[in-house]
């Protein structure tokens, strides 16, 4: 299944890129990420407690960053396996900056198998979009504070609130 | 097909149910019919540690007219709505929608409140609730509040309900005399869910359209409503149903096909509703 989209972050590209390649930040921003541990160059072992509504599952797997070209591009490869099934995905992330706003463009492919895919197929695309939005909204919040400041808090309601205020900002900017 | 272990309680009052939920906010689930939750539990896609069954709370199943509104208890089953003479006369869109849900077993056990709180992106009720401009009455630790249908559906299987809140009642404004309504649906043959479902309420002054099945949540088709208010024909207005909507696809129906179906079925819903005025 193809996944693509863009997300605007009100911060400098270098800052956004550093946030998006910092394991501590990634752990806070990837929805449900409980653990992210460096196991090799740009390779991390991870435990994800991912879910939508009442559907929840624990996935263990790896996150790998490839083709890293600071501050404009990297490729993220994620593999996870758990009781509900398996998920594999890879995607290219490109960052472009204009007027202090960094646009992250992402384009990737996700496949899923097992119970999750056989009964949850119709909701797969929606789930992936929802998690991508949560991820980029959290990255935006991280990028807007300086590195020496304490990191912002995340959570579903905070993330939704930030997404909503971003939406309002975009709507009113267009008018 | 055997669920993971869980605790089960069936409180007698809503306050007690709220208190039980608050004790395990991340892990307790409300049982309100169970026709979505129990299959997910049997597949172990959902593994709540506590089920709070609402069926022993006596006063959650009713259909009561009051001051221009109809109040429907959250535990009212789809069948009770489908077969209500009061609703057939005062708000026929509700029984019509109920008749499209799942199969006889689902309609006998599944509830309006359960379906809405679950917020399946292809469920039938959300489209109709949006078209009727209903309000959700919810009870939590902090007391009671009402949420407009439009603010209730937040994202995929995600509502504006806080973890310790319970949807108690759905309040429907009775459509004015001379209002025509219709719910039309493309049914997924295996699941019975809506590939596309469109509910329309057409009255002299205003038209409201609710759409389910094509995006991560049901939504009001404001672009269609605005086009109609501006004098567009049903066909022209219906072509705008996916304006600004992020349409999802799956193996059964691609996003493009769903977009096409949504336009065709929106036109049909508008025409059917107008013909019933």
Overview of the molecule:
The complex is a heterodimer of chains A (175) and B (277). Chain A is built from 4 helices and 7 strands, in the order E-H-H-E-E-E-E-E-E-H-H. With 175 residues, chain A is an alpha+beta fold. In chain A, helix 2 packs across helix 3 and helix 3 crosses helix 4. The model of chain A has no long low-confidence stretch (mean pLDDT 87). By secondary structure, chain B is of the alpha+beta class. Chain B has a 5-stranded antiparallel β-sheet. The longest helix of chain B has 21 residues. The model of chain B has no long low-confidence stretch (mean pLDDT 96). Chains A and B meet through strand 4 and helix 3 of A and helix 2 of B.
Task: List key phrases describing it.
heterodimer, A: 175 residues, alpha+beta, seven-stranded antiparallel sheet, 4 helices, B: 277 residues, five-stranded antiparallel sheet, four-stranded antiparallel sheet, 33% helix, 25% strand
- Beta-strand proportion of chain A: 35-45%
User: What gap, in angstroms, lies between the N and C termini of chain B?
Assistant: 48 Å
What structural category characterises the helix and strand content of chain B? alpha+beta
Question: How far apart lie the N and C ends of chain A?
Answer: 35 Å
* Radius of gyration of chain A, taken over Cα atoms and rounded to an integer in Å: 16 Å
Low-confidence stretches of chain B: none
Quick one: biggest sheet of chain A?
A: 7 strands, antiparallel
Biggest sheet strand line-up of chain B: 4-5-10-6-7
* DSSP strand tally of chain A: 7
Query: How many helix segments of chain A?
Result: 4
Task: Give the topology string of chain B: H per helix, E per strand.
Answer: EHEHEEEHHHHHHEEHEEEEEEEHHH
Q: Please tell me how large the radius of gyration of chain B is.
A: 18 Å
Largest sheet: number of strands, sense, barrel closure of chain B: 5 strands, antiparallel
Biggest interface goes to: A-B, 23 and 32 residues
Question: If you average the pLDDT of chain B, what whole number results?
Answer: 96
Q: What is the N-to-C succession of helices and strands of chain A?
A: EHHEEEEEEHH
Mean pLDDT of chain A: 87
**Order of strands in the sheet with most strands of chain A:** 1-7-6-5-4-3-2
């Amino acid at each position: 299944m193809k996944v693509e989209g863009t997300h605007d972050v009100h911060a400098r590209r270098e800052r956004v890129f550093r946030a998006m390649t910092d394991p501590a930040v990634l752990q806070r921003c990837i929805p449900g990420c409980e653990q992210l541990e460096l196991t090799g160059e740009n390779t991390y072992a991870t435990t994800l407690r991912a879910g939508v509504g009442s559907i929840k599952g624990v996935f263990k797997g790896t996150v790998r960053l490839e083709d890293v070209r600071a501050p404009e591009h990297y490729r993220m490869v994620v593999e996870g396996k758990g009781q509900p099934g398996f998920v594999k995905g890879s995607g290219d992330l490109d960052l472009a900056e204009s007027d202090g706003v960094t646009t992250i463009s992402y384009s990737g492919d996700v496949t899923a198998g097992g119970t999750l895919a056989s009964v949850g197929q119709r909701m797969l695309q929606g789930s992936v979009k929802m998690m991508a939005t949560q991820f980029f909204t959290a990255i935006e919040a991280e990028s807007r504070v300086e590195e020496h400041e304490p990191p912002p808090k995340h959570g579903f309601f905070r993330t939704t609130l930030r997404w909503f205020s971003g939406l309002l900002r975009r709507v009113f900017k267009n008018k | 097909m055997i669920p993971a272990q869980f605790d089960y309680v069936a409180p007698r009052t809503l306050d007690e149910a709220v208190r039980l939920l608050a004790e395990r906010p991340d892990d307790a689930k409300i049982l309100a019919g169970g026709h979505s939750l129990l299959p997910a539990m049997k597949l172990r896609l959902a593994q709540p540690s506590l089920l709070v069954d609402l069926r022993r709370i006596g006063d959650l199943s009713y259909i009561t007219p009051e001051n221009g509104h109809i109040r429907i208890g959250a535990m009212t089953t789809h069948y009770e709505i489908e077969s209500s003479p009061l609703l057939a006369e005062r708000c026929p869109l509700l029984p019509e929608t109920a008749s499209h849900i799942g199969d006889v077993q689902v309609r006998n056990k599944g509830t309006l409140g359960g379906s809405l709180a679950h917020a399946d992106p292809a469920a039938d009720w959300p489209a109709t609730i949006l078209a009727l401009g209903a309000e959700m009455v919810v009870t939590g630790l902090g007391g009671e509040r009402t949420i407009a249908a439009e603010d209730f559906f937040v994202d995929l299987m995600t509502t504006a309900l806080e973890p310790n809140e319970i949807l108690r009642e759905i309040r429907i404004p009775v459509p004015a005399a001379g209002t025509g309504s219709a719910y039309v649906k493309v049914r997924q043959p295996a699941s019975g869910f809506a590939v596309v479902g469109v509910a329309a309420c057409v009255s002299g002054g205003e038209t409201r359209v609710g759409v389910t099945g094509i995006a991560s949540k049901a939504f009001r088709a404001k672009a269609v409503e605005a086009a109609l208010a501006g004098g567009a024909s049903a066909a022209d207005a219906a072509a705008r149903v996916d304006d600004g909507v992020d349409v999802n696809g799956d193996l059964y129906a691609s996003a493009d096909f769903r977009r096409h179906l949504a336009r065709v079925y929106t036109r049909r819903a508008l025409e059917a509703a107008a013909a019933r005025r």
